[in-house]
Amino acid sequence: MINNNLKNITRAKGLENAIVVSILLFLFSLIFPQHDSFLLSLINEVLVFLVLLFVLSYIKPLLSSKTDSPFTLVLNAGILAALIFSIISVSDSLFGSLAEKDANLNIINSLFSIIIIFIFIVAVIYILASFRELFFLRQKKDLSIYFNTMQVFFLLTFFSNLLLKIDKNFDYPYNSFFVVSIVLISLNSLRVAWIAFLVKKQKLYLLLISTILSILFGLNFGLLLNESNTIRQIIFSFSPGLYSVLSLTMIYGMIYFGVIFFTTLFHLPTAEAFDRKAQEASSLMDLTKLITQVFDFKELAETVTSITAKVCNSYSAWLVTKKGNDYELNSVHNISYVDADKLIKMLLDNEESDLLRVQTFYYDSVSSELRNEMKEFKSIAIAPLKLQGEINGFLFTARQKDVNFDEDEKKSLQAFADYATVALENAKLLAESIEKERLEKELDVARDIQRKILPNNVPCSKNFQVAALFVPAFEVGGDYYDFFELENQRLGFIVADVSGKGISASFIMAEVKGIFESLSKLIPNPRDLLIKVNEVLKDSLDKKSFVTVIYGVLDKEAGKLNFARAGHPPVFLCSDNKVERLQPGGIGIGLDYTNGFANSLKEMQIVLKNDDILAFYSDGIPEAKNARNDDFGYERFEQIILQNKNKNLDEITNILMHDLTLFSKDHSQHDDITLVLIKWNKKN
Questions:
Q1: In terms of pTM, does the model score above 0.85?
Q2: In this model, does residue 410 exceed pLDDT 90?
């Protein structure tokens, strides 16, 4: 941005200076139409030189932006050369020669002459500036000294004309500078590195253009040598220095485009090879862009096959990737899926171990069976898609013409296959990343659902204490606990675990919550309630889903607890310095919708004593694992409750989580942890 601003300022300043000096030159020409004295000639030449210099400072930044398109520079120089030729050619017929004019008529003072002069100034500077840009285009070394030296001799030639004002016979310096300038022009014209970077079509076009322009510049120089030519007389009378620069510019164009013609001619035999390499490089660059821009694996595979056919100068291409122990055909180009699939099976049978690098199969040297399948193809090349030493697939390309794949083409195919491997792998990883992100969002929704359906507070009573804990795993399970205030001073509670994980388990859990909230107020008996819940969920649970539940009803005055267990882990009862596992019969809800569910379900009643502790939990606690994949187990769980039975329930919960965390610190939590503790302590 800063460079562009500087260029714009330079151009604007150059144009402003050029206009000011041009006005001064115009006024000077009107006041002093004849430059008889040395001083007037010097002032005139200095003004002309300044106009040339400032016009150059305006045009130079303009042309520097066109170096990516040398044809534009060539064509613009040619157009200006044609304009000069047209003006010189028609000047005699329109205006006659100065010799035929009245001696008192000074054509220099005419408006026509001034316009012609400034047209030639702009044209000469633009052509020289174009040659300068072409000189430096695609050069790898700093060659500015050569071009600058030529410009110095142009300048010396420009001002050496003034010596003739002193002595007309003193033409040696002028002739010397002029000849040296031509020698430097010839040397600088050899700097045409940019031609090598043109494609064959452009080189053929350049041959024609250079021939025309070389002749055109030569004709212009020949016309300028004719002393009777009106334009020649106008320019020479106005400024001998400008005439010298104009002549040198025409010589430069004649030599330069002649060199271009022969250089281009010599480049033609290698043009096709260069085009192919340029196509390969361009395709590799395109594929590199695709690595970061194309996210769809199918679209990327199709792009790879189409570009492969173009890069390898082949007719068809197809791509296969490994899927388990088999291959999957991902995309084809100029071949049917059926034909490509047949060729894949035949070419890869018993050949995969040999396909660690590019292999070729030719029609005349393969088995008759494979020859029948190749049909119109004369040759097929196969490149492995290797990633970290393993083959992930193959890239095929086939030719209809009877031309073998050379070593350069094989290397290009392998290089392209390597780039394609990275691009395809990135597409796969991106797809997996998107899927992972989608699943994580789904889990966030599920966790949010889970948090919202759990109770915010635990029941509070003078006869018992309640503590509850829920620690979600990274993945969402279906753990659920809740409390229900019932009639006749009773408290219903539930601890449940829905099989599976994710949002589906959360929705089932939400449905379970609604069912228990409704039925707990209608069905007082825990066993009957679970039987009814099993019937209600018949249409909601699929064959792979089930729910394990412990549902109990506690009499808050008498301390009686009735509960039923449907496939859930056993209840721990810590009483009289021991822990007992209470495990009445029952299978999980959703596993059986016949009478078998009701027949398996048993209800248990216990009467709590002071300081008795009940533990209801999900299998996330006993099944937590350490680095050796050992379970935390029921025994450790029981010992923690027994050893800390005299402490507050919240303290017991904290101690349990502390020990559980230390035990499983080297193993990730794979399931939710749910714990509900009830301690009976009725005060008489």
A1: no
A2: no
